[in-house]
Design brief:
By secondary structure, the protein is mostly helical. It is about 75% helix and about 0% strand.
């Protein structure tokens, strides 16, 4: 009997080592850009029962790397991985149901898969649940549950969830309103490279909420957020450069202002496009003004901005 147990243990050990070898080889091939080789190695390990390799192969079918894009196959592999206890596969299966890729769109099923993923340790699954309960999509809106899941994801290292949880504390949604906790969460997000966290942190320094007012620090954070792709930070800075010396003590600089509005507009920010249109109109450049009014009009976003932009564009067409 002892000999049988030893043989079984050896089989498990060497089987796991084989999985590890295939996974390491596949990973190296993937990093080198040899996606076809990586896909073959992931498939071999997946066929032997490795949930992690099934998951990786599913991602390759989803992205079309080394294989033809096949959403149905990807979903099958994510379901396989989830059934074997692989947390990220459960989360990805939830995404497939939410987006309708490879399966009929079903938000209720998506939530169930996110719950499985979160319970098994997928921070993205927890984050997705936080957003689901915050927005009330396919579930009853519940800010308390949203905050609970954002906290779980944040504690697990999902920085976007730290930012979201900061908002919950800032507005008092699902938790007791607390500017200091909001500040700390925004700071954590920003320090970890989340540009949105830097934008929110700048607001805290600018308004003196949760921290002593510091306009210079706010300005630095807005620059960081703008460079990180937060177009609203670019618009805010652009507006400040158009004023006389103001909160940040900036010298009026129309050129810098226009550059920031263009940066925001290029990132699909309607207000940035609208303000850039104003600048061109003041310079008597009707063609450019109309171009940016039209772009602001066509972009999704703040309804008031859209209405103003469309109104200006239509007015210019008549003249």
């Amino acid at each position: 009997m002892k000999m049988v147990l030893k043989l079984l243990a050896a089989a498990v050990l060497f089987g796991n080592l084989a999985f590890a070898d295939d996974f390491d080889e596949a990973y190296k091939a993937y990093e080198k850009g040899d996606y076809e080789k990586a896909a073959k190695l992931y498939k071999r390990a997946c066929d032997k029962g490795s949930a992690a390799d099934c998951h990786k192969l599913g991602r390759m079918y989803l992205d079309g790397k080394g294989v033809e894009i096949d959403d149905i196959k990807a979903m099958e592999l994510f379901k396989n991985g989830c059934d074997k206890g692989y947390a990220d596969s459960c989360t990805n299966a939830g995404y497939m149901h939410s987006s309708g890729r490879g399966v009929k769109q079903d938000f209720s099923k998506a939530v169930k898969f996110y719950e499985k993923g979160c319970d098994k340790g997928s921070v993205i699954g927890c984050s997705n649940l936080g957003n689901t309960y915050k927005n009330g999509k396919s579930v009853k809106q519940d800010y308390s549950k949203a905050a609970e899941f954002f906290k779980k994801a944040c504690d697990g290292g999902n920085i976007e969830s730290c930012h979201e949880l900061g908002y919950m504390y800032f507005f008092g949604n699902g938790v007791e309103q607390d500017d200091i906790k909001a500040f700390k969460l925004f700071e954590k997000a920003c320090d970890s490279g989340n540009a949105g966290g830097c934008h929110s942190l700048a607001h805290m320094y600018y308004s003196g909420k949760g921290v002593e007012n510091d306009d210079i620090k706010a300005f630095e954070l807005l620059e960081k957020a703008c460079d990180g792709g937060v177009s609203n930070s670019c618009v805010f800075l652009g507006t400040e450069y158009k004023k006389s010396p103001w909160n940040f003590g900036l010298e009026k600089n129309e050129t810098k202002s226009a550059e920031l509005f263009k940066k925001a507009c290029d990132n699909q920010n309607a207000e940035g496009c609208l303000r850039l249109g104003y600048i061109y109109e003041n310079e008597k450049n009707k063609g450019k003004a109309m171009e940016y009014y039209k772009k602001a009009c066509d972009l999704e976003g703040d309804l008031a901005i859209k209405q103003v932009a469309c109104g200006y564009y239509e007015d210019k067409l008549k003249k």
